[in-house]
Design a protein that fits this description.
Layout lengths: L27 H5 L39 H8 L4 H8 L3 H6 L3 H9 L3 H6 L6 H5 L18 H10 L4 H4 L9 E3 L4 H8 L4 E3 L7 H5 L2 H8 L3 E4 L2 E4 H9 L9 E3 L2 H5 L33 E6 L4 E5 L6 E8 L1 E7 L9 E2 L6 E2 L4 H13 L5 E6 L3 E4 L4 E6 L3 E8 L7 H12 L14 H12 L1 H14 L5 H6 L29
Parallel strand pairs: 1-2
Antiparallel strand pairs: 2-13, 3-4, 5-6, 6-15, 7-14, 8-13, 8-15, 9-12, 9-14, 10-11
Helix pairs in contact: 16-18, 17-18
GO molecular function: cis-regulatory region sequence-specific DNA binding
InterPro entries: Cupin_8, F-box-like_dom_sf, F-box_dom, JmjC_dom, JMJD6_ArgDemeth/LysHydrox
Protein name: F-box protein
Length: 507
């Protein structure tokens, strides 16, 4: 249905849901939560399609000639296959086509098709169009397209300008993520391995916590090239992009080789930049040494950047430490049906709206009402735990810097280790992050575990087989499970499979 959207109302209450057991300092989101959110005028004056019925003036679409038989959606698709010179020529014919040849997504695609050397030589001009054309902002034509009415053009612009405060504040009490001061490894292993939570007093001793401001990163690493989705840019250039861009989904700097590029040490050495928090205990993927899959990343992004709904790779858990800025998280347990997220039968493909803003506008209200929904803000100096298999969407509520690491926790009931083993064994086509010369990650992992944690591996494989309905050879030999109440040798260390409220076990 055509829209006549002029504004998206904001919430009036500026309070953030703080959860349990921790403190929360106000940030930019809280400060703006009480201000109504109004979508500004489109830079070309383009209006939503519904406004056409309220306008007494001419409709620019009447001037497109033979292009008129194409609906807006189809016209936008056709223009995705047009090169730079043809976009400029076509856009010069009338205001309607000028507006359709102007969106930055078209010019972003053209930029990404450039040879790397050419792309690197172009100075960022505040938009993809101006950058490709090497056109300073003050020289760009100011064409009035106020008689162009199109949801296809206006909706991405509206999504770019939504006020995040209306979505990330006023979190219902039932949804609030637990907030804790800190945990010991024993506490984490016994109770928290399968629960999301925020720790407010865990990373204060990290040197990067005080050193990594945006200005300091720019000063020390401005010439270092980092990966930001589809581009490899020097940090100085990415910082310019962060300050000014028109993207509905801003590029997210997400670099797994940052430690080598920045020449920093990670660990408990005297001159280390940071280290893995003790509370998460042993990381079983460490048995792989240099052959472990990609597992740690530097994350930098402007406000509105982030990740749409996904699960972390290879069945791993993760922690995400915010060094600067703040992030909003909305999460669901592994078996939840997340509104607006469609998963193939084998879980190999996930389809969801194209941008975070689209999902927030269309599905956030419905998702927030689900009993499984967990939400929270992770602010600077805090660290958030992502349990294995949990769906999560993350968005920066302000420009920020974070560090994240995926890991395989060791817990008494070994539920999460069994999930990783099942993933590596039964979904080899979905395994990611390993070097190409590692042909069978499952065999490699089990071989290394057998050397260092033989009894742990035996228990985890037993649990994995029972989850998948398989019988291990030993079970068959002793007749275990053939009839109700049958007994046989157990690899367990004590404690029934269903004991406690920690890892979800198979009874």
């Amino acid at each position: 249905m055509p829209s006549a959207m002029a504004s998206i109302p904001g919430r009036q209450d500026a309070s953030l849901a703080n959860g349990v057991g921790g403190s929360h300092e106000p940030n930019a989101v809280e400060a703006s939560a009480s201000r109504p959110s109004s979508i500004p005028s489109h830079p070309l004056g383009v209006k939503p399609l519904g406004n056409r019925y309220l306008s007494a003036g001419p409709n620019a679409r009447a001037s497109v000639g033979s292009w008129a038989f194409l609906p807006d959606e189809m016209l936008a698709v056709v223009l995705e296959h047009v090169d730079k010179s043809d976009l400029l020529s076509l856009g010069a014919t009338c205001k309607f086509l000028y507006a359709f040849c102007h969106p930055d997504e078209l010019w972003k695609s053209l930029f990404l098709e450039l040879p790397k050397e050419r792309g690197q030589s172009l100075r960022w001009q505040g938009s993809w169009r101006r950058t490709v054309l090497a056109l300073p902002k003050e020289r760009e034509a100011n064409v009035d397209c106020s008689n162009v009415f199109s949801d296809v053009l206006h909706r991405p612009f509206a999504c770019t300008n939504i006020d995040l405060a209306q979505f990330v504040t006023n979190i219902p009490k039932a949804n609030q993520m637990r907030r804790l001061d800190n945990l010991t490894y024993e506490q984490y292993a016994e109770r928290w391995t399968e629960q999301p939570f925020v720790l407010t007093n865990c990373i204060q001793d990290w040197p990067v916590r005080s050193q990594w401001t945006m200005d300091r990163l720019l000063q020390d690493y401005g010439d270092v090239e980092f990966r930001a989705e589809a581009v490899d840019w020097r940090f100085a250039r990415y910082r310019s992009y962060m300050r000014e861009n028109r993207d509905e989904s801003p590029l997210y700097l997400f670099d797994r080789k940052f430690a080598e590029k920045m020449e920093i040490k990670v660990g408990r050495e005297a001159d280390a930049a940071y280290w893995r928090p003790d509370c998460f205990g042993p990381d079983l993927f460490e048995v792989l040494g240099e052959e472990r899959p990609a597992h740690r990343w530097l994350i930098v992004g402007p406000e509105r950047s982030g990740s749409t709904f996904h699960k972390d790779p290879n069945g791993t858990s993760a922690w995400n430490a915010v060094i600067q800025g703040a992030k909003y998280w909305i999460m669901f347990p592994p078996t939840a049906q997340v509104p607006g997220v469609y998963v193939s039968r084998d879980s190999s493909e996930v389809t969801s709206p194209l941008s975070i803003a689209e999902w927030l506008l269309a599905f956030h209200g419905e998702a927030r009402r689900l009993p499984e929904c967990v939400e929270g803000i992770c602010s600077a100096g805090e660290i958030l735990h992502v349990p294995s298999g949990w769906w999560h969407l993350v968005v920066n509520t302000e420009s920020g810097v974070a560090l994240t690491q995926n890991f395989v926790p060791l817990s008494p009931k070994l539920n999460l280790l069994s999930e990783v083993l099942l993933f590596l064994r039964d979904k080899p086509d979905q395994v990611s992050g390993f070097a190409r010369d590692i042909g069978n990650p499952y065999e490699l992992f089990t071989e290394r575990l057998r050397r260092e944690y033989p009894e742990v591996l035996a228990r985890a494989l037993d649990l994995a087989d029972r989850k998948s309905g398989r019988k291990r050879k030993w079970d068959t030999a002793v007749g275990r499970g053939d009839e109700e109440g049958a007994t046989g040798f157990s690899f367990g260390f004590g404690g029934g499979d269903g004991d406690g409220d920690g890892d979800g076990e198979i009874a």
